Amino acid sequence: MISALLIYTPRGELVVSKFYKGSIKRSITDIFRVQVINSLDVRSPILTLGSTTFHYIRSPGGLWLVTVNRNNINSARVWELLYALGGMLAMYAIDNSDTIKEQFMLVYECLSLMLLETGVVCDTELPSIAKQMSVPPAKPELVSMQQEEAKKKKQGSLASKALPKFLQPVRMNSMTRSLSLSTGSSNSGGNSVIGKKNELVLYVNERINILVAKDSSILKSYVDGTIDLTSHLPPNVSCQFGLNDTQSYNSSGGYGSRIPRSAERTSTLPTSAAMAVDLQNCKFHQCVNLETYERDHVVSFTPPEGTVELMKYHVTEDINLPFKVSPIVTVVSSSASTTSAIDYRISLKSLFPSKLSATDVTLRIPVPPGTIDCKINTSNGSCRFIPEEHAMLWRFNKFQGSTENTLSAITVSSNDTTELVLQQWSRPPIALTFELLMFSNSGLSIRYFDVQQVRDGPRQRTAKWIKYVSKSGAYEIRY
Amino acid sequence: MSDQRIFARYRANEIRAELQNGEMKKVKSGVTKKKNALRKIIANLTLGNYSEMLQLFPEVMRFWPIEDDIEVKRVCHEYIRTLGSIKPRSIIEALPFILRDLESRNERIQIMALSTLVSVPFNKFTDEAFDFIIKLAGKRTTSGNLLKNAIYSLVQLDDYDHERVMSLTSTLSEIVDHHLENPTIQIAALNALYQIHDRDAKAPPYHISVDTAFNLLELLPTLNEWDTSTLLEVLPITVVPQSHDDVYDMIDMILPHLQHVNSAVSLNALKMILYLLNYIDEVNETIIKRLSNSVVALLEKPAELQFLVLRNVILLLLSREQSLLKLDVPYFFIEYNDPIYIKDTKLECLYLLSNEETLPQILDELEEHATDIDIQMSRKAVRAIGNLAVKLGEKSAQKCVDILLHLLEFGVDYVIQEIISVFRNILRKYPTDFKRDIRTLVRYAEYAQETESRNAMIWIITQYSDILPDYLELFETFSQNVLNEAPEVQFSLLTSCVKFFVRSPSPATEKLCVQLLKECTEEAGNPDLRSRAYMYWRLLSVARENTNMVTPDMLKDIVDGELPIIELNTKLDPAVLEELELNIGSITSIYLKPTSQIFRMNTVKHLPRSRILDTDKGMLRVIPDSSSNENVSSSSKGRVSTSKKNGVHRAPTMSDFDKPAETVYKLKGERKSSSNSPSKLARKPSMLMRKLTLKKKF
């Protein structure tokens, strides 16, 4: 159990302090401020002084969320709690020092729901807590959180302290079939059903990460995927879906035995070279029945109201690479002037089928420090040199499949940049970001998706949607 | 009023005035004003403005009877709690109010009141708390939340009054065994018992029987994620399995939870399984695979959790001879955007994962990072390369040395210094292999500025003085200014000059030696240095005068003896390892130090004895799973497999995936500067020009 939880503004003012143990002195808050917030070279997310330990994270807006404790607590619990708290703050749009100063009482209320008054975590399911709070959240949807985060990234994520890679907001689940001790709200899903259409949307979100070496050999490549579910269904309706993973093929002996009547086949989706995907490690949400998965490799669950991250998986083999980047980067010394420059010739080719197109494609090409300008020539898209980030950004609004585009550029460096400096420049990799709909990087497809009928209700049509979104994770190419 | 900032220090009078103001006006706005004032009180408490707020005690008391607004109640309780821990005696008047709250019908208020009672360190308060809890435990119809809070409050009360709490432990054990409809309470009682025993260094660790453990494990599917992680955290050590079947059954029950998305649950499941593995002597390979997969999946979490998992991975890699995790090296390749602590830890993991097969990949990675901008990273990378050379055999050492020499040409000073230091270790391990490279190295002697690299350089020059013709001049560049050097360098200079003299007594070496000895004895400030210089001087004089007592051979032996082979010991002490394995996921596993060094109050954990306890960890046999191999081969027919695991295959390249594009856009036009200069030379013809060229009149 934690001894105290503190929240500071980005500048270091203490806004929320909740002490769970009387034995902790109040001066702890100052110690943290001095040691971490105001110090320049901090190399670890955990700090131990004497026998007091601080665990901390930073929200996307820069708020410091800190826990203090004096015993050997399990750090995984602490960080999961902090991330859940951060997700809660994001839902209420509390993200900078003004908003938190206005709404700090909300934070106290939320803390009293998430943790017992003695500092033990009891429940961090965001929708259920949101329902119990006196004020409804400003942004209850999952989708808008991701967009907001993506917006923040585009606006120049030059923060020198590391921001969390993606704030996992989404243990946004609430009631499980289990007996949750939240005061009596386990059946509140019932009130929204009547009159609304029944709808279930499955989002298969994938992020592809690859690292390509100088000789264009692939050092590592893997795809992280999550399957999110948004459901507007009556409570206690169970669903199941099956994936085309090798293990389920092996255990059920192929396609035959298990497909119920209302099967949905996604045959238009391009799959990987193999018909099946080797899902090596997947993590499931609370509401998924893990034992059924162990036995039959069928994901069976009872969806709670709202948005839930159902499953996370990780695939390393047989990945469909959507883009191929071929950079040729050389140091040229121009005979006319004494300075040297770097010449880039980069071609970007899309490898997915031509009927699809990727949006928000950006190729970030680093340039050495000391570059004042770049002369750029592109075949398509727009490329600009951004001096503050030491990079050129080549943007496409829409990149059609099976297309190739080229960029040719040369840097103009300042007078004191010699050839030696350019040769010694440690080249940060070229990074690519993109978003691609209805394409599965890993080749994973949902074979069937079935909703059990409510036993005594009228026969209702449930609208089921499956949407595949592939995004870039860390798509890095060394040159 | 509402524009006034809430988060500012106020005097008591100001807030008092505000509260009175709120009462006089109309109901609606009055309420908001009062609430604002209350908020200001809390804000001021956070800011530390205690003395002022203490004066507002009577006002706050007046708000107490308001039952229907939770926020007001919360403010009142928070007020008492904060001030109670600082000045308990002044708050004593609030006690009857709090007691009345305990009897309230609203459960939340009861909970708040209980926790307020517990947080004020004053006898009267804690006595009331005890009475309440005892009454509560007796009643069977208490609501879940309240009972849970009460149970955990016992743990807090333990700080104040240990004996009374110990007497209640039997009640708690009853709760654990009793099958309630609400398993969360059982878990809470279990956790509380565990913590109470943990704190008490004299009491034995808490034990539960294997049957109880099985009952609790059966509850697993119904529990909330946090309760699951609590249960899995408490179980190691408390339950001691007595037979192999028990162990296998427990592992089966826990295995699905490795796939939980909450990292606390999966790490605790990992810990429990590792603990159980100590009690059996053979394990199926599928379990190993699942452990490894679960760890890899955890690497996809945000940075701090990744950091935790990586440190635990290091732990597991260090521990057993035959490591329990099968992990691919590419997972530990460093990405550009990783925060610095992750990069450091990944480097360490790479170093530990290296063996003959994986060496080329790892060396390439390390070479990339040796030229990184961050100084510490590149130093660590260079050091890792050097340590790898020492750790693995001769062939690998050659590759490492090649890379190091290549890096020397890079010309960056801290890299060179690090290389020199690391080369010394390599030369100690392989004294004869790399002689030809020493000349190259010596050319960079003037780069050695830091203590360690200077030391290393001096040692190299001394040790290999036979192949360096001009060693004396080189040495003199170091020894010229001996008094200004760091202590370690001074000592090694002294030792070296004596060695030179003893090996080849010549006028030049003698002069050098005498000069250095003179400086050290007469002008040095460090007494250790002086006494060592004196010792050497005596030794040399005795050797000269009386060759019977100290023969030249003896002298050589003393001064210039055989050096033992260097060994880099990266393994942790087994006792420490055992303890850390029982602490996976906790803070000590991040620091990789025993609990007693960091938390003095916690008890140290050991593996409890049992008849099946397997003390020798190396004996754990892994049964390869033959069935899974067949499946893999059958499903890979007709599949383009690009396996990266086998080091013999070449790594896949981008061109494997290449398909010719249907549409190719070529470059058009000249290179244009994209800078923000607004000069657009190629502008469209101005409207004026256009109008002038029109034939019609406008």
UniProtKB/TrEMBL annotation, chain A:
User: From its record, what is one biological process in GO terms?
Assistant: vesicle-mediated transport
Annotated keywords: Cytoplasmic vesicle, Membrane, Protein transport, Transport
InterPro entries in the record: Adaptor_comp_med_subunit (IPR050431), AP2_Mu_C_sf (IPR036168), Clathrin_mu (IPR001392), Longin-like_dom_sf (IPR011012), MHD (IPR028565)
GO CC annotations, alphabetized: clathrin adaptor complex; cytoplasmic vesicle membrane
State its location(s).
Cytoplasmic vesicle membrane
Please report which protein family the annotation says this sequence is part of.
Belongs to the adaptor complexes medium subunit family.
What name is this protein filed under?
Answer: Apm4 protein
The species this protein was found in: Maudiozyma humilis (Sour dough yeast)
Automatic annotation (TrEMBL), chain B:
- Its protein name is AP complex subunit beta
Instruction: Identify the Pfam families for this entry.
Output: Adaptin_N (PF01602)
> Composition bias, kind Low complexity: at what positions?
626-645
Q: What does the function comment of this entry state?
A: Adaptins are components of the adaptor complexes which link clathrin to receptors in coated vesicles. Clathrin-associated protein complexes are believed to interact with the cytoplasmic tails of membrane proteins, leading to their selection and concentration.
Organism the protein comes from: Maudiozyma humilis
Q: Does the keyword DNA-binding apply?
A: no
| Span of domain Clathrin/coatomer adaptor adaptin-like N-terminal | 16-543
Q: Name one GO cellular component term.
A: membrane coat
Q: Name one GO biological process term.
A: intracellular protein transport
